[in-house]
Amino acid sequence: MDTFESYPVRDTYRLIEPGPTVLISTSDGDRDNLMTNAFNMPVRHDGILAVVVGTWDASFATLQKSRQCVIGVPGAELMQTTVEVGNCSGDDLDKWEHFGLTRVPGISVAAPLIGECVANIECKVEDDSLVEDYSLWLLRATAAWIRPGAELTSEFHHRGNGTFSTNGELHDLREHMTKWKYFSN
Ligand SMILES: Cc1cc2nc3c(=O)[nH]c(=O)nc-3n(C[C@H](O)[C@H](O)[C@H](O)COP(=O)(O)O)c2cc1C
């Protein structure tokens, strides 16, 4: 693949542990869609991740049917587009065309990777037992990609009220992660 280079699935928690606002790509085979998602988190260090996708999203039905998606991590240059993707429905327009985003084929899911994102995580539904009560989907990362040379600290964060922050200074406390050396390389 030219656009992206492979990223270890076991390290995908690092792509969303900082709490990025992400794009979720889904496909039902006939239609590809995109939504914005800020309620996401890593769950385990072996590629189990969680996202809230609710019945109010057209993406919900697609995720339910396909049981696959791609989590794309946009850099700050995509901030406004990301907000706008979250303010319209794939039932009304083709968001890929409308926002000029590039579909890049993945290797383990039908939903496209988002060419403009810094990182993309291909996922399959691992457990939907919390969906009915909490709209919470547990996903298993099946492949992951980063843009070569990309700045992995360029993600941005929704502060919950329509304001967003980018990252400030990076503080290196790896020497203090004494119990967690494995996670501090
Ligand atoms: C900043 C932002 C964060 C959002 N986070 C979530 C989220 O975590 N979960 C969710 O279900 N919807 C979230 N949304 C709403 C969906 O992105 C929105 O309902 C979107 O229109 C769904 O697109 P779809 O109907 O084409 O699937 C968010 C929207 C914005 C603008």
TrEMBL record:
Belongs to the flavoredoxin family. PANTHER family: FLAVOREDOXIN, FLAVOREDOXIN-RELATED-RELATED. Its cofactor is FMN. It comes from the Bacteria. It comes from Nesterenkonia halotolerans. The keyword Cytoplasm does not apply. Residues 14-163 form the Flavin reductase like domain. Keywords: Flavoprotein. This is Flavin reductase (DIM6/NTAB) family NADH-FMN oxidoreductase RutF. The keyword Plastid does not apply. SMART domains: Flavin_Reduct. It holds the Pfam family Flavin_Reduct.
